[in-house]
Amino acid sequence: MDGKNSPYTYAQAGVSIEAGNALVKAIAPLAKATARPGATSELGGFGGFFDPKAAGYTDPLLVAANDGVGTKLKLAIEHDRHDSVGIDLVAMCVNDLIVQGAEPLFFLDYFATGKLENGIAERVVAGIADGCKQAGCALIGGETAEMPGMYAAGDYDLAGFCVGAVERGEQLTGERVAPGDVLLGLASSGVHSNGYSLVRRLAEDKGWKLNRPALFDADRLLIDALIEPTRIYVASLLPIIREGLVNGLAHITGGGLLENIPRILPAGAHGLVDADLWGQPRLMAFLQAQGAIEPAEMARTFNCGVGMVLAVKPGDVDSVLARLTEAGEEVVTIGEVRAGDRGCTVRGSQGTWSATSDWDATHLG
Question: Is the full-model pTM beyond 0.90?
């Protein structure tokens, strides 16, 4: 039979069903290791079940979040750092749930690539499973899509979906935040998962040698400092949330402190942050110096060392500080909530910047 009349197969088109099946078999133990009450984490069905009653909930509200890792993936792909981006994927979702007061219950992932390379995919999913264990949620399913022609050789993309629960009436919406509340900041682990298009642009324009020791830390390669996974705050925050010690929480992602703090403030409340109350991490100072980045741009692009902000009543501050420190968090008072237009002002020795309720940051001086 000549080539023109040969029977076509999916594999000839670039999709290997066998590779997909092998990946599911390989990652099944990883998912099983994330099992928790309410979920079995068995893979292979058309959907995953979760029983909120078995998880201890009586009248739960479900809270859902989804996110990705962004162009941080390019650094992972180009420098063979596939093991931790799965943690980033989970972190970006579960940190968004905990700020609603919700406990993450289960997670699903989407892995898309042009050609499935199981060794890489397994490393990515292992990171996802690690993140799920850190957050206490079950990896109950996902999708692996092999799409020839959609992605360049070696490229892949990730998306994550997480559902959590909070008992009705205990959710955090920001309505309890009030003038007089103290703003506490939890240290970030690095750049987290926002601002990497700028990081990568700097790396290219400045000719950074990513596989050499960082100028700001001779004990670490620059690539390892940049790829450090996003910190997951669930385990340390959930107990104090359930005890009613937190009025509001802001996950500091894209938009930085300026644009995320206003998202948890009610009308008539304004967040005032003093940037001189904590030391800028050396990585952040390096990025700012390398790019001659204006302070206002730093404040709305990067987390500047603060990955999560809590609004706490003054009388609860000491207890919250002690509990979070004991849980392994680095905590610092970064400001307060005052009466005023809904928004946020960040001030310090480098100037003062403000974001109004529509989160449009403007340099004031």
Answer: yes
